[in-house]
Amino acid sequence: MASFNKLKNMLMLAFDWILYSAGATDTCQVTVTQPRFQEADYFMHTVFLTCAFSASGCSSSTPQVLWFRFLTNQHEDLCTPGCRDQQKYKVHLLAENNISLQINDLTANDTAIYICGIAFSDSSSPRSKQTGDGTVLTKTEKKHSNGNLIFIFMIITSTLLFLYSTTVLTFVVYKVGLKSHTSKYPLKKKINSKRKIFQAIAQELQKQRFTEHCGQ
């Protein structure tokens, strides 16, 4: 927090150095407000940081909008007021006293504190150049889907194993049924053949007994 307050003091000195000019409106007072936090999902490539301000006792001229970025113990001038990288950063006027900073090609390296500044350059009042408390921008990392992939792989593998087991079981049952069905007929034929032989033997024995009986 001490380093952040030091940064704000440095920015105020920068305002005085960049934008100072003599003027008659010494009662100009500016208040700047920013959202404290803003999170961007990993799939987002563009983000808009909002900033609102109010001006009391200031001229009707359009104020200058400045944006800074605070990284660890140093700050970067993004738009003062022109943006140093016009492809990466753009300033938009949303409505009266509402502005935004557009950040393109968003990456995890853009995680930082973004500070909005408003300055009425035609005023010499020390309150005519103010900054907000900053917006902490964070970009979430892409969640690893290894667990989901493993779960899906297990489902697919289980399904394939189930289908394979069902197919094999159906084939085995079909083969066993077919074998038992076809094996019934040879067995039945064998039994019938044996019965015929026994019947023939019995009939022959009866004939022999009948012949002996008739001879006696």
Keywords:
4-stranded antiparallel beta sheet, 216 residues, alpha+beta, 10 strands, 2 domains, 2 helices, rod-shaped, Immunoglobulin-like
Written description of the protein model:
This protein is an alpha+beta fold and 216 residues long. The protein is 41% helix and 29% strand. The chain is built from two helices and ten strands; from the N terminus they run αββββββββββα. Strands 2, 4, 5, 8, 9 and 10 form a six-stranded mixed β-sheet that branches. The chain has a four-stranded antiparallel β-sheet with strand order 1-3-7-6, with no helix packed on it. A hairpin with a 2-residue loop joins strand 4 and strand 5 (74-79). The radius of gyration is 47 Å and the shape is rod-shaped. It starts with a helix and ends with a helix. The model is unreliable at 19-25 (pLDDT under 50). It comes from Oreotrochilus melanogaster. This is IGSF6 protein. Residues 49-132 form the Ig-like domain. InterPro entries: Ig-like_dom, Ig-like_dom_sf, Ig-like_fold, Ig_V-set, IGSF6.
